[in-house]
Design a protein that fits this description.
The complex is a heterodimer. Helices cover 0% and strands 52% of the residues of chain A. Chain A is an all-beta fold. Chain B is built from 1 helix and 11 strands. The chains are: A mainly beta, B mainly beta.
Chain lengths: 116, 114
C-alpha cells in the first residue's frame, strides 16, 4: 500500500501562473517532508522541505504547505517558469525512528509542464 | 567536487548474467542508498547503509546484494539478472539523517535486461 501518494501524474500551467502540486500520506509516523525535482536523464535534486512543527516553509518562488490533520501537503510555485518543467517527487521520513530517519518514502511523481 | 558518481550510465544484460553497478561519493557522507525508478512507480529503496560495514534492506531488496567496505563506495550487485530488474537505478548519499540534510543523487544507471 502506497504511503505517499501523488494522485496527479501530470499538470500543465501557463508561464507566470501558479503551479500547485499535491501530496497525501497515510503513515502517521511521518513528520518530515521533502520535495525533489527531476529533469530527464538526471538524478533528483532536493528542492524544499518542511517538518511537522510548521505549516509553511518558503524559499523564493517555492512554498510548501503542510496540513497535518489532513495528512496533506502541497508545493506552490509562483510564478511558474518554463525551466520549472520537470517531474516533482514528494517524499517523507520518520524523524525519530533510528534507521528509519535515514530513509525516504517517495510518491510516484507529478510531471509539471510550464507552457511559455 | 564530483558529488555522487554512478557507472555505467547505460547497460544491457542478458537474463541470468550478473553485474555490479558502481556508486562513489566524495563528500564524506555516512549514509548511502540505492533506489530504483520504474514508470508509474516512483523511487523505491533497494538497500541502504548508515556507515562503512553496515548495510540493511529497503523495500525491494530481492535479487540485489550490497556491501560497504569504505565510506566512499557503495556498489550494488545483481546476482542473476531478470527482465523485472529493467529499471533506472539511482544511488544517493547524505551527510546525516535525510530529514536534516536531504539526499544528493547520482545521475542514474539505465539497465535493460533482455
Amino acid at each position: 500500500d502506497q504511503q505517499v501518494k501523488q494522485n496527479s501524474p501530470s499538470l500543465s500551467v501557463q508561464e507566470g501562473r501558479i503551479s500547485i502540486l499535491n501530496c497525501d500520506y497515510t503513515n502517521s509516523m511521518f513528520d518530515y517532508f521533502l520535495w525533489y525535482k527531476k529533469y530527464p536523464a538526471e538524478g533528483p535534486t532536493f528542492l524544499i522541505s518542511i517538518s511537522s512543527i510548521k505549516d509553511k516553509n518558503e524559499d523564493g518562488r517555492f512554498t510548501v504547505f503542510l496540513n497535518k490533520s489532513a495528512k496533506h501537503l502541497s508545493l506552490h510555485i509562483v510564478p511558474s517558469q518554463p525551466g520549472d518543467s520537470a517531474v516533482y517527487f514528494c517524499a517523507a521520513s520518520e524523524v525519530d525512528s533510528g534507521a528509519g530517519s535515514y530513509q525516504l518514502t517517495f510518491g510516484k511523481g507529478t510531471k509539471l509542464s510550464v507552457i511559455p | 567536487n564530483a558529488g555522487v558518481t554512478q557507472t555505467p550510465k547505460f547497460q544491457v544484460l542478458k537474463t541470468g548474467q550478473s553485474m555490479t553497478l558502481q556508486c562513489a561519493q566524495d563528500m564524506n557522507h555516512e549514509y548511502m542508498s540505492w533506489y530504483r525508478q520504474d514508470p508509474g512507480m516512483g523511487l523505491r529503496l533497494i538497500h541502504y547503509s548508515v556507515g562503512a560495514g553496515i548495510t540493511d534492506q529497503g523495500e525491494v531488496p530481492n535479487g540485489y546484494n550490497v556491501s560497504r567496505s569504505t565510506t566512499e563506495d557503495f556498489p550494488l550487485r545483481l546476482l542473476s539478472a531478470a527482465p523485472s530488474q529493467t529499471s533506472v537505478y539511482f544511488c544517493a548519499s547524505s551527510y546525516g539523517q535525510a530529514v536534516h540534510y536531504g539526499y544528493t543523487f547520482g545521475s542514474g544507471t539505465r539497465l535493460t535486461v533482455v
